[in-house]
Every structure is written in C-alpha cells, then in structure tokens.
Amino acid sequence: MGYDNRSVSELSRKLNAADIPTLISLAANHDLSVGVQFALASQCEAAILPVREAAVQHKVDFLDASDVMNLVSDFAGCTPQAQLKALETRAELGKLREEEYARIEQESKRKAEEDVRIQRNGLKMLDPEQAKTLTHEERVEVYKRSLTAMGLSEDGPMTPEQKELVQQMYRTMVLGEPGPAKPQ
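The structure assignment produced for this chain is given below.
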C-alpha cells in the first residue's frame, strides 16, 4: 500500500530490535507480508540474522526473506556494513532456496518411483504365479497402499463391514489365502 524508502525510515523510528520476533511471527500472513518486510528492513543489521534463521526454519518464505535483504541493502538508514551483510545474506538465501527446492524435487521423484514400484507389485498380485515372487514386505506395502486409497486405516474407525473387508484384504493380499468364492 504505497511502501517506499520514506516508509522504511518512518518504521525505523517507530520500531526497534525487540519488535523483530513479533514481526517474524506476522510474516506468514500474506495480507501483511509486504508491510512486515519493510518493518523488518527498517531494523537494518539487527534483522538480518533473525530473518535468515526464520527462512531456514520455514517461518518466513525464502523469497520474502530475500526481499527483506534487498530492502536493507537499499535503505540509506542502514550502515554500509549492514547493507553489505544483507547482500551477502541474500546470496546465501538464494543458495539455500535452491538446495531446498532440489531436495524437495528429489523427494518427489523418490516418492513417484516408490509409487510406481508398489503399483507394479499390486498388479503382480493379480496373477497367482507372479504374486509368489513378492516378499512379505512388498505384500504389506500393497495392502497398506490399498487401505489408504480406500480412505481406511487399520487402527482407524471402521464399520463392521469395513472391518470384515480389511480382514479379508489382509488374508488375501498379505497372507496369500484364496479369496471368498465368487457367486456363479
């Protein structure tokens, strides 16, 4: 809402370093995020490390934290040393953000590969000969994934019919017992 360098100057007179934890707690509110960034930047060097730590702890978005560092580096009310430290911290936040995104991407890829493997094992269970090649752990994985897909949990609330279904699924999928006879 019209924040500029004058806003940072005014905030620097009205706030102090003791306000930084409160400001960080408000940073997650998207309606307040721009104002919070300006308020944090008004505290110059005192805000740099707390904002960096808040970003690492996911209390502040990496991009929002980088914006705070940009504002500190551009605010004439901050010392040249604080401005330089803000630029260095912004670069560090960029690297941390890239590492975080790479980790998330790797985790997503690993989960997708795991899903494909479990689905493949589920298909093997349809063929009695291929089902024999599955380990007990693989059968349990398919069983648990099937329960999750149905919105059920072994230790969650169930109707008597659901309990019977889950027990039958366990016997056929995990123990390899034949299913109930199909009506003719």
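Interim note for the steering committee: The mean pLDDT is 92. Residues 5-104 form one domain.
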